Amino acid sequence: MWDYTEKVREHYLHPRNVGEIDQPDGFGEIGNITCGDALRLTFKLDNEGKVAEIKFKTFGCGSAIASASVLTEMCKGKTLDEIKKITNNDIATELGGLPREKMHCSVMGQEALEAAITFYETGGIKTEPEVKHGKVVCTCFNVTEAEIEHAVRENGLTTVEDVTNFTKAGGACGGCHGEIRTIIERINGAIHGDKQPAAAVKQLTTLQKIDLIRKVLEHDVKPVLANDGGDCELIDVDGNTVFVKLHGHCAGCAFSNMTLISVVERNLREKVSEQLSVKLA
Asked: Which domain holds residue 87?
């Protein structure tokens, strides 16, 4: 289970500066609720060019709320030149740290701030959340090659799992993993192998496979779902098809199919067999 700092909990339970400013000087909107997370950031400058007021709205998890909340506090009273220097690592550090799997929340904050600054500097041109420039590598989460390159350079990423944690790219179907590895290798100038999946085990008996599936669900999947008030129950295994039932907040959630792929199926493919698919019972 992920370990959150007291400051993350505080900003999640009591977020600062929630809302939206009318006729803002800066407006930034990042993400898309169809892909999971979205953040809107607005600010107004005072006569000295410093951030006098800043607010946010977000559709996301507790880490997304905490990251946006602490970011607004970090920006208050600062000039544009000062807030331009704020990085996703600065946001995470201000929170006392974030689980690596949640670093994409701090990245979203930095990107929303950059979009809001661009809005101000271009005289009010909005950066629409669904508009992307450059080649899209991860079609599941609409992440571009440029975004992956930036995350790798900025944060010293060396594996596909790292890139997923910081950008969400590769967190669903996995079809872009090869291209992500190529980007990592090109930028770092050396081959960095991604984690070898336990899926290489191919000679499991049916009972061994079911037992391993149960262990992965118990130790790798359930703790993740529990962080958002959800749970997962194994119903049946038919060949390479795993049937599960979602409970708690995950049951009936609009993003249950995404959870099924990015959390349940991804873990089972990595740790049991690449040929497994997961369906709701």
From this structure: 6-121
